[in-house]
Amino acid sequence: MIEDLFANDDSIIRQWQEQLAKDAVVLRGFAYGEAQALLQHIAKIAEKASFRHFVTPNGHIMSVGMTNCGTLGWTSNKQGYCYTKTDPLSGQIWPQMPKAFQQIAQQAASHAGFTDFTPDACLINRYHPGSRLALHQDKDEIDLSQPIVSVSLGLSATFLFGGLQREHPCQRVILTHGDVIVWGGDSRLRYHGVLPLKDGKVPWPLQDSVRYNLTFRRVSLP
Ligand code: MD3
Ligand code: FE
User: Is the peptide bond before 205 cis (omega within 30 degrees of 0)?
Assistant: First the structure.
């Protein structure tokens, strides 16, 4: 009888959610079933718009490799950072956002209570062991009522989830293959970052020691 209750839906035990704060939720395993397809799309996008290491306005080279898909992409150089319609490396428009990307982002957002999220930008971050992302806010998007959705793939990372001021204490959250975070509303401008990536077991079908993070954003007004 008990077995029957659980036998029909594996997702009951493989997917759950953790509230990090008001308007910030981790959907554990939410993208697990789509991971292989998402990774194939990442490889295709990187053939057109390769991963590169941006320079920050302070002159530091980022240890995280980045590329984008969608109508707008995030770029940085010594002058500052901004969203552009074309890839500064190729001069071409950024690769189109795959349907599978749109769908997972929209599903995750609506699961978290943001019903009309249509992302127009997806920043793709690539981490190797040692890569880190310093504490920062995501505030370059105009409409801050829209959430951001993040999908983690590959190696696990320790994510720092802070407050609205840099000095506020951070929660440490381990993000693994298939985990999704949705944050918006009162949490939209929280400081966050990623500790230096540690090497470890790489989930199938990946071969290399790598972590990818997709962040879906609404940059232009609807
Ligand atoms: C919760 N990426 O690209 S996403 C970024 O893992 C970025 O590559 C990280 O931050 C990564 O800008 C983390 C998860 C995340 C990001 C921002 C948040 C969760 C957040 C802001 C507030 C609360
Ligand atoms: Fe960020």
Answer: yes
**What residue's CA is closest to ligand 1, atom 22?**
190
The ligand placed nearest to the CA atom of residue 150 is: 1
Question: What's the CA-to-centroid distance between 195 and ligand 1, angstroms?
Answer: 12
CA distance 121 to 85: 10
- Kindly report, residue by residue over 78-101, the tens digit of the pLDDT: 999 999 999 999 999 999 999 999
Percent of the chain predicted with pLDDT > 70:
94
Of 205, 219, 181, 222, the C-alpha closest to 68 is 219
Computed over its alpha carbons, how large is the radius of gyration of the chain?
17
Q: List, for residues 115-135, the tens digit of each pLDDT value.
A: 989 999 999 999 999 999 999
The response to whether 136 counts as a known ligand-binding position is: yes
Q: Which amino acid is at 40?
A: Q
Ligand 2 centroid, distance to 134 Cα (angstroms): 9
Q: What is the CA(150)–ligand 1 centre distance, in A?
A: 7
Domains (range + CATH), the chain: 17-217 (2.60.120.590)
